[in-house]
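User: Fold this; tokens only.

Assistant: Input:
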Amino acid sequence: MTKRRLVLTGLGVSLLAAAGAVTYRKSTVVITTIADMQAKLASLKLNKLDSLSGWQPYKVFVHLAQSIEYSMTGYPELKPAAFQHTAGSAAFYAFSVAGAMTHNLTEPIPGAPAIAESGDVSAGIDMLIAALQKFENHAGEIKPHFAYGNLSKAEFAQAHVMHIQNHLKLIQTTQSVA
């Protein structure tokens, strides 16, 4: 496939995703800050969590922490710059306007090491909360997103919160932990 066709195909897919994101509006209470998300995540530790489909909760939380860490250290693989400047930036813009993200919830970060299918869910949540705190405290350079390209720290914070919200749609609480 030629580079031009790859970019155009990627642009078409991203525009479809963006259109979906714009129609997917905020439902009930939507978390918009890292601090609010950390509180939400901490409250999840009081419950037994199950997945409605896709990855088990532990893998979801580790994946989310991994993504946040990469925003500070660099993603292992990046989409081509042409994709980032067209389809990737268009998708982020649409998600940002919609206040919500939609994406494949079982797609690993390109080039990232595999994550165990299951593990201690509470430890996974702690890892995610710690990654969010590390991001909040990070004063260094923010690395480009593998698909969206260069984002400001505020834009990345928004992307992280939307990413977590999107994954949490498939996590359900089944009972309180005794």
